[in-house]
Each structure stands twice: as structure tokens, then as C-alpha cells.
Amino acid sequence: MTGRYPDSPKHIFRRGVQHAQLALGKRRQGEGEGEGEGGEGMQEQSASTQQNKRPSSTRESRGPQKKKGKTNDPTASEDTVSDTLWQRSAQLGRTGAATTSMTAIAYEIDAKIRESEERMKRDILLRIEPLQKTLGHLVSQMTALYETVASVALRTPGRAEPQRQQSEQVSKPEQPPSPHPASPVPASPSASVQGGVAKFYKMEVEICKIKPKIWRQFLIRADLTFEDLHEAIQRALGWNNAHAYDFKDGSPFQRTIAATYLDEFVDDGAKHVEELLLEDYFERNEVCKYLYDFGDNWEHKVTKLETVERESHIERELLGGKKACPIEDSGGIWVYKDTVKIAKGKAGDFDPFLKDRVEEDGWDPDAFDLEAVKTYFDR
Question: How many CB atoms are located within 10 Å of the residue 336 CB?
Fold first, then answer.
């Protein structure tokens, strides 16, 4: 058979009809030959034994007869028969139904394969995400350990100066005590403290990249150091003061201005937090950045709102704030949303370690008690 689509259902059907006709023709031809031989034998027997009977002029004498209008050629009416049968089959809806069923099955198999692939992808992501969070906790703990070791091992110029002075004093010969000891010289008052009144900065601290924002406002005396500012931020927000930190300026370059340990090649011009006074920086600047925990990388924006005068006998005073401090060593702002969802009782695939911490601590992201915090902040 020839055609544009030799494997189409219609052509397959035609080939089946052709094979059936060929088999039927061969069978009829074999039957005809057998009947011819039998006819000749019967004619001889009739001539020898019964002379008074007429010879048979039927099928026995003349062999197989072909019916009028019929033929044994199986290909003579191939197209007509096959077309007729195909049309009848199509009318009955057999072939069409089979084709439609196969098409539907193919689409169903494809849909199942796609669904299986998507399910596998989701399963893989669900398995990888807890591992990523666990790895983040391990990195945070390793970073904290490194910071602790580095803070002990490294010595900055600011800390080396008292040791140098002490060695100079030891090298000098001791002088005999004077019979007339000198009277103590009163220390000159700081430029920020005059007549019992001191200069204060009204500060606002907020944790960056969290909405709605977590913030605190407080007053701090201008003649204090950046180490005092670090302690004030820790107390106001509720951190545990368990990691290293540094301060950077408010420029896009974020140059380090004060840190617990310094690198002379990287932190050029920076000072130790115990040496740099707040008024030395905030008299010329309004904003700085405070980075706490180099693993979780909590970044704070510190803004000087205004300069005020208050009694000099206090160092700092908490004024206000909103929302609770994030959980220490929880993974940074990337995991903060999960802690909020866990605290609010929302369903999700959360890190079991983080979920246990939130539930055991009873952490509430919206909680902030101003009066309770003031009891250990103000001094």
C-alpha cells in the first residue's frame, strides 16, 4: 500500500482487508481444484456402469464454475471494499474512539510525568532548605568563636600604649619620696559638661532591612565613647553582647570609624571604640552604621536626631521604642520572617531548632515594655 500516511489507522485497516481477501481467494481456488478432480472420476464411473444414464453436465464435468460478476482477484475491489468498511467503522465510532482514547492516554501520561517532576523538585527543595539553615547556624557559631579568639590574640595600638607607658615607668630609676607631697590638681571639666549641665545626643537606632521597623530612642552624653554607645544599643534593643562589632560611617563606602580590633591595612584612620568620643564624630556627622555579629550580620542605623542639654549626673536615658529584638544567633534577617511566622502560629516548613527556640523562649515579635527596659538602661 502507498500513501502519504502509510501508518495511519485507515491504511492499517486497508492492509488488513487486503490480507483477508488474499487468504479467502487462495482457499476458494483450492476447493475448486479438488471438486474438478472428483467430477472427472465420477464421470468415468458413470460411463462404465450405467450406460443408460446421461453424463453429468454439472460441476463434475466442467470443473469449478465462477459466478457471474465475481472474481478471485483480491486486489480488484480493494479500495472499494476497504473504503466501505472504513466508512462503516468510522460510523460505528470504533477507530475514532480508539484514536481518541490513545490521545487521551498520551496526554494523561505526559501530565503525570510533569506532576512527578514538580513533586520531585519540591521534595528536593524541602530537603535542602533545612540543611541550608543548619549550615547558617554552624557558620554563625564558628564566626563567633573566631571573633572571640581574634579579640584575645590581636592587640591594637590603643591597647598597646598603656603597656609601653608601664614599661617606661619600670625602666626609670625610683626617686625617693618628697617630704612635701604635692597637693592634688583638680581635673579640668570636659567641654561637654559645664556648671552641672551636660551636652546629650538624642539618638535613634533601628535594625536595617526589617519592616515594620524595630527601633529605640535614647539620650546619651556626648563625652562618652563609642564603646558606651555599643553598650547602650545592646541594652536598649535586648541583645546579649555575645559577638564582635564595629562602627562605620554613613557614606556609601561605609568606612570603619571604630572597632574592637583594627587592621592597619583595611581600617586606615579608624580608632578603637574606647578611644573615639561620640562628640568627635557626631559634631560633624548625623548618621553611622553599627554592625553586630559578623555571622548573622545585624546592621543598625544610628541617627543623631538633635543635641540637648541635661543634668550631668546621668549618662543615658531611654525614651521610647517599638517591637521586640530578634532572637540571638537565629540566622540574621534571612530567617527573621520565619521566627515571626512561628511566633504567630502559622504553618510552614521551619527549622526544628529555630521552632523549639521560639516556642521555649515565648518570643513575641510585637512585645516591648518601655518601663521594664528603663530599669536596666537608665543610669
Answer: 20
Indicate if the alpha-carbon torsion angle 263, 266, 269, 275 is positive or negative.
negative
The Cα–Cα gap between 368 and 325 comes to 9
C-alpha cell at position 154: 590581636
Distance CA 287, CA 256 (A): 13
In 3D space, the residue among 320, 293, 294, 113 whose CA is nearest the CA of residue 203 turns out to be 320
| Contact indicator for 284, 229 with CB cutoff of 8 Å | no
The C-alpha cell 544567633 sits at: 329
For the chain, 379 residues long, give each residue's pLDDT as a single digit of tens.
445 555 566 666 666 667 666 767 776 776 666 555 555 555 555 454 455 444 444 444 444 454 444 455 544 455 555 566 556 555 555 555 555 666 677 777 778 788 888 888 777 877 776 777 677 667 766 776 766 666 555 544 444 444 444 444 444 444 444 444 444 434 344 556 666 899 999 999 999 999 999 999 999 999 999 999 999 999 999 999 999 999 999 888 889 999 998 877 667 789 999 999 999 999 999 999 999 999 999 999 999 999 999 988 999 999 999 999 999 999 999 899 999 999 999 988 898 999 999 988 899 999 999 999 999 999 9
